[in-house]
Structures are given as structure tokens and as C-alpha cells.
Amino acid sequence: MNSTSAAPTTETRMSAADRREQILDVATGLFGDRGFHGTTTDQVAQAAGISQPYVVRMFGTKEKLFLEVLDRALGLLLHTFRRILESPAGDDDRPMQARLGSGYVDLLGTRGVHRTLLHAFVSGNDPVIGAAARRGFVDIYRFLRDEAKFTPAEVEVFLSQGMLFSVLLGIELPAAFGQDSDADELMQVAFADKCGVVLEMAGPGTAR
């Protein structure tokens, strides 16, 4: 007589809210890597370990999922900026532009955020995504003007540097560091004292 019985198993179920956040995390990484058109809801589902119909049931369409990912990325960006703006400088005697710039770079720690924003910002011809990207970009401008109290010249420089940073990430220049001395010099000019951090998070051999 076989007295062996199956070991009891405990299935851990996520709440709907936690599952939603998990899907958004996964989708942010995939949309960042592959863009809107290169990503499918099936890929998102597989990466999250759930069924594709579940993703569709929760978000509706791929477009709606991307819009939520974009809104979340913009929200994270502005939350990061506001946290820095409201925090005491302490020993950090750099101007606010530099402190906010460092916060922007540090968002590399959240996979897909920068690339998702870049994909959205170059989708102006899409009637839905383009409109959402324009609203988000203007929201960033309003923050810099109204809350950070940047001058028009400071806004111009800050946004220009931010977009240069995003473009260099988009063409994966950090991942090719060490292959071309001029490209390495460009990175050092663009990233300045954060170059080491960028290489640690997005340099050769790192996951995107």
C-alpha cells in the first residue's frame, strides 16, 4: 500500500491592484525596449505569467495599456521632481537644475521609463498617443515654470539636456561605451558627473 500523498500546495493570489501594477511594470519594460508597435499584449502576458485575455480584460486594448504606462511614467517623473524640489538640499549645494537632472538620470533604475517617454514623444502623428505625449510634455514645462520657478532660458537648457539624454539612451550609446573614443567623449559631455551612474545602469553588459 502506497502511503505517499501529494504535498499540499498553497497558491498565492495577487489582488487585482497588485496584479495591475505588475502588468504595468512588465509593460513599461517591454514598451521601452520594443516601442508601441513592436510590443503585443501576448508578450506582456507571457512576461507577467498570465493569460493574454486577462491583460485585455483588465486594460481593454494595447493602446489603452500604453496610455496607462505613459501616464504612469510621466507621473513617476513629476513625483521624482517634486520630491527633490521639496527636499532640503543638505550638503548638496548644486543648483536645482542639476539636482533635478540627477533625479532624471536616476530613473534609469526603473526599467523602461526613459525609453517609453521617448517612444511617446516621437509619436506625434498618432492621434491618441501623440495627444497624450503633448499633454505630458506641457505638464513637465508647467512644473519647471510654475513650481521649480525656472526662467525661460533655464527651461530651454533643462529640456534640451533631458532630450539629449533620452536620445543617447534610445540609440544605446551607453551600451556601446569603449568602442569609439568620440562617442565616449560625447557621453561624458552629455552625462557629466552622472556618466558613471549611466554606465552602471545602461552600459555594456547591462540589461536594458
Topology:
Blueprint: H1 16-34, H2 41-48, H3 52-59, H4 62-86, H5 96-106, H6 113-121, H7 129-147, H8 152-170, H9 181-191, H10 195-202
Could you explain the architecture of this structure?
With 208 residues, the chain is mainly alpha-helical. It has a domain of 109 residues. It has ten helices and no strands. It is globular. The N terminus is likely disordered.
Helix content: 55-70%
Strand fraction equals under 5%
Radius of gyration: 20 Å
Number of strands: 0
The best one-word shape is globular
How far apart the termini lie comes to 55 Å
Specify the biggest β-sheet.
Answer: none
Q: Please, how many helices? A: 10
Round the mean pLDDT to the nearest integer and report it: 91
Structural class: mainly alpha
The SSE order reads: HHHHHHHHHH
Low-confidence stretches: 1-12
Keyword list:
single chain, 208 residues, mainly alpha, 66% helix, 0% strand, globular, disordered N terminus
